Amino acid sequence: MEPVYASVVSTARMLWLAQGLKLDISGVENVPADGPGVVAFNHTGYLDFTFAGIPAFLQGRRYVRFMAKKEVFDNPVGGPIMRSLKHIPVDRGNGAESYQAAVDYLKRGELVGVYPEATISRSFELKGFKSGAARMALESGAPLIPTIVWGAQRIWTKGHPRNMGRSGAKIMVGVSEPIQPEGTPAELTARLHESMRAKLTELQDTYGPYPPGEFWVPAARGGGAPTLEEANAMDVADAEKKARKRAERED
């Protein structure tokens, strides 16, 4: 038992109760009861990780060490909490240190949470995956645990205001069968993407109904979210804008 992590979990549960969230958790049996695992989950909003850790907690009160951008750890309030929970800071400009920290955790039998998409998908469909999760699994010998969170984008996502009040939103978390670390990083990443795509489709089909035009509903289901292609173009434009600002600061 880790007192700090346990208290954070209790606080989150009280918050979810106050918000009236309806949690639907499936596939808990696919989380290893002991030993390592790379919990790979999709990224639709800022609170995905809080829900992605639920199946592990239900599987023998296991805790997930999440990888998160280092800016979160720089926050005077959130930083100490993140460090006490043994989460892993990620410097996107130099990821070697965080990658090695994650592999070390895995070799010690921990569960490590990773966003294979790296950044939020504004389409709420799966973007292309980075190979980091697969490489961690191959180096450590840990299985990949494909996990999908659906509905969390209704609470807080990129480009939309937070809705932390009593929304009564439904949040689904589904875990697919573990994927053994075999093959090349590219092959393993492709298998992970396909597994998560299938689970995402399954949860989306079950979730409904989808109000037409709502921002949190994918375009393919009649919602107001951009298509995957449109969202990718927005990401490229954002990256170019950030690059220009960096160049201007350096001049």
Describe what you observe in this structure.
By secondary structure, the protein is α/β, with parallel strands linked by helices. It is built from nine helices and seven strands. Strands 1-7-6-2-5-3-4 form a seven-stranded mixed beta sheet. Helix 6 (96-107) crosses helix 7 and helix 7 packs across helix 8 (185-207). The radius of gyration is 18 Å and the shape is globular. The model has no long low-confidence stretch (mean pLDDT 95).
What composes the largest sheet? 7 strands, mixed
**How much helical structure, as a percent, in the residues?**
40-55%
Unreliable stretches covering 5 or more consecutive residues: none
- Per DSSP, the total helix count is 9
Question: Over the alpha carbons, how many angstroms does the gyration radius reach?
Answer: 18 Å
What is the count of β-strands?
7
Q: In percent terms, what proportion of residues is strand?
A: 5-15%
Strand order of the largest sheet: 1-7-6-2-5-3-4
Overall shape: it is globular
Summarize model confidence as the mean pLDDT: 95
Structural class: alpha/beta
Distance between the termini: 51 Å
Task: From the structure above, extract its key features.
251 residues; alpha/beta; seven-stranded mixed beta sheet; 9 helices; 42% helix; 14% strand
Outline the fold blueprint.
Elements: H1 3-19, E1 22-26, E2 37-41, H2 48-52, H3 54-58, E3 64-69, H4 70-74, H5 78-84, E4 88-90, H6 96-107, E5 111-114, H7 132-140, E6 144-150, E7 170-175, H8 185-207, H9 228-250
Helix pairs in contact: 6-7, 7-8
GO molecular function: acyltransferase activity
Region (Disordered): 221-251
Keywords: Acyltransferase, Transferase
